[in-house]
Amino acid sequence: MKPFMFVTDLDNTFVGNDTALIELSQKLNQHRQEYGTKIVYATGRSPILYQELKQEKNLIDPDALVVSVGTEIYLDTSRVPDSTWSEKLSAGWNREVVLSTTADFPELVPQPDSEQRPFKVSFFLQETASTKVLPQLSSRLKARGLDIKLIYSSGIDLDIVPQGSDKGQAMQFLRQKWQFVAERTVVCGDSGNDIALFAVGNERGIIVGNARPELLEWHNQNPANHRYLAKDFCAGGILEGLKYFGLME
Ligand SMILES: [Mg+2]
């Protein structure tokens, strides 16, 4: 057995099937100790909401934690985000300019402070107002020289983040840092915001059996031999996929 890089979304992917989660965590921990396998969590959660889940489900410590839509990477158990990644995101980003621009849109309601991050500004935006606000906001921000993207999801959440930040790009940054080839890297997910993980390159992909329609639809439209659609749900599906790819017994 050789080391590999294991990257997983948390909600409804790694977490959601308690029995299988215990088995998978034990196997991954053992693989890490014996062969130097790296474990990465990639979640849309903020650091605070990640800590809540970690406590609740007794998650094993990852080697790297990607949080807040890929805008922050924490190595080992560091409390300070990786500065190389932060520097990459700084180009074309200016939080103050984002805030002064969004202040002109009364439809944008700020999300709680815990969700406001150095490289992420988050609002609630009603779906009815979104068709008018989003294009206007996007062109105003770009006119002010910012290289950003707007992520609008669930008909209510709006995240404004640097163009270069998503789970997939954060994953590749770590893969290159630790020098894993795509064939020794596996990414796991269940929903639309995990498409960034699956679409960025040729890494092995595991789509859990409980995947949401938007991910299944994307998978059907973009079939690939290096992607496996599991039958079992959450961690059970991940165990199935790791066997399928011969990464773990
Ligand atoms: Mg998920």
Detailed description of the structure:
- By secondary structure, the chain is α/β, with parallel strands linked by helices.
- It is built from 9 helices and 11 strands.
- It folds into 2 domains: 5-87 and 165-244, Rossmann fold (3-Layer(aba) Sandwich); 93-162, Hypothetical Protein Ta0175, Chain: A, domain 2.
- A hairpin with a 4-residue loop joins β3 (64-67) and β4.
- The mean pLDDT is 95.
- Bound molecules: magnesium ion (MG).
Topology summary:
Layout: E1 5-8, H1 18-35, E2 38-42, H2 47-57, E3 64-67, E4 72-75, H3 83-90, H4 95-102, E5 109-110, E6 121-124, H5 127-143, E7 148-153, E8 157-162, H6 167-178, E9 185-189, H7 195-199, E10 204-207, H8 213-221, E11 227-229, H9 235-244
Parallel strand pairs: 1-2, 1-9, 2-3, 9-10, 10-11
Antiparallel strand pairs: 3-4, 5-6, 6-8, 7-8
Helix pairs in contact: 1-9
The structure holds magnesium ion.
The site of magnesium ion has 6 residues, from loops.
